[in-house]
Amino acid sequence: MKKIKWSEDLNTGNANIDEQHQMLVSIVNHYIDAVNDEKEQEEVKNILLKLRDYTLQHFSAEEEFMQELGYPELEQHKKDHEKLTKMVKEYQEYAFSDHEVPKEEMIPFFKKWLLEHILQKDMDIARFAKQQEENK
Question: Which of 2, 15, 25, 102 has the most CB atoms less than 10 A away?
Fold first, then answer.
């Protein structure tokens, strides 16, 4: 399966958030490489652990940013984050119970999650932040 290509369209305008999104894309691409190359299950598990940990770190930073902005959709965005975190955790638990998670299921999930979340939900935050800046 193909990796995710980062493009300028994915930039939100917040350097910290954009850097974190790029790291998430990099981790997912590392996962894609590992399953495409049929790496050992232990390596796949380690990538999933890194993805979950970094996802939690990113979501925390993003939620703090939204809190500072007074973003009106913060609670819904937190719920989206919780849902995504739960899915990543479920995939990780499945892999750690020595089951092989089908790449045909996981890779599309990760791609859809990252791209849709960034392009839709996070861009809404970016537009709100820009509007707040213009209103000052």
Answer: 25
Q: Which tokens is 54 given? A: 């970094």
pLDDT in tens, the chain (136 residues): 788 888 888 899 889 999 999 999 999 999 899 988 888 888 888 998 898 899 999 999 999 999 999 999 999 999 999 988 888 888 778 777 876 667 777 788 888 888 888 888 899 999 999 998 888 7
DSSP conformation letters of 19-83: HHHHHHHHHHHHHHHHHHTT--HHHHHHHHHHHHHHHHHHHHHHHHHHHHHT-TTHHHHHHHHHH
Residue 75, both tokens: 């609670």
First to last CA, the chain: 46
C-alpha 1/C-alpha 11 separation (Å) is 24
Using alpha carbons, select from 13, 128, 19, 15 the residue that is nearest to residue 68: 128
